[in-house]
Structure of 3-hydroxyisobutyryl-CoA hydrolase:
Amino acid sequence: MTEFIRTEIRGRIGFITLTRPKALNALSHDMIRAMASALDAWRDDPQVLGVVLQGEGEKGLCAGGDIRYFHEAVSVGRTDIMDFFTDEYRLNYAIATYPKPYIALMDGVVMGGGMGISQGAALRIVTEATRMAMPETAIGLFPDVGGGYFLANLAGHLGEYLGTTGIVFGAVDACEIGLADVVLPRALLPVLCDRLANGAWDDSDAVLDAARTFVRESLPPAGLAPGKLAPLRDVIDSHFGLADMPTILKSLQREARCEYSGWAQETEDLLRAKRSPLMVCVTLEQVRRARHMSLADDLREEWLMMRSVFNLDGRSGAEGVEGIRAMVVDKDHKPRWQHERIEDVKPADIARFFDGERRGADHPLRDLGQ
């Protein structure tokens, strides 16, 4: 138990509850360490056969990391901000490789860091209230917490589209594209938790089977919004599979005179007016590189990229600090990006995010996957 995290064992299930609803359960460093400590303790505890992650409050599981902390830390010259990412990425990897069923109740807002503590789950449950996204390019960041990896593993070029635009989507889309497994009415989440906590389970497989059976036998949520991504799959692939962002934008301009004119215009306007030009280009490269990486390699790459996004390498400009200032701290919504337009971003600007030092024996995540 620590501030904003409640961990408890009920029956043979370990429950992790994020208890910071006023901040949409945004992850602080202490919360990350508390989650990691609980998972480590339960890993070899014969009493615990499975783990359930949930968030307190009506608004959502987790809206991401504590980005105000990032801004404050970098603004005063603190370099220990990278300890946050080291511990967060270790937690993401621990969840993805956990030897017992880890069940994520992805209700309400699940974005950024909330995706990082959910996507590695053995069972990802969404509800009619789920609002999911990797919206980092809006604040001068990139989809980290393993985002490169799980976006890269989506079909076609959905990963490039979702990562660069950061669009929000719901439960049906999440299941159809592979970022969630099943939909359950949010009113039944407490019922599921009680069922798991009170069951007489013989082993971990029985816990996971029971959770899956409960969802399968429950009625779907009423009034569930239909998915919007499936009908766009071909057109997304045709544009976001192109060579680079300037070429993608030109293609969207041509599409604006064709069948999907509304979507194309909205997408171009979003990328141009509401996203960091630099980080849109960096994210496109990130997702494509991650297609050839393991999760461990992707997290190591993202750690190096994060040093660049906050200019801790002294070479890249603090795009993330400016984005968080404009969108979250001062809320003037007028970020002064390093580049005025996507077309102004040079290949060398992108490359700086992928040629960082500490790739070898002294990388703090060097042991992941070993």
Observations:
- The longest helix spans residues 81-96.
- The radius of gyration is 20 Å.
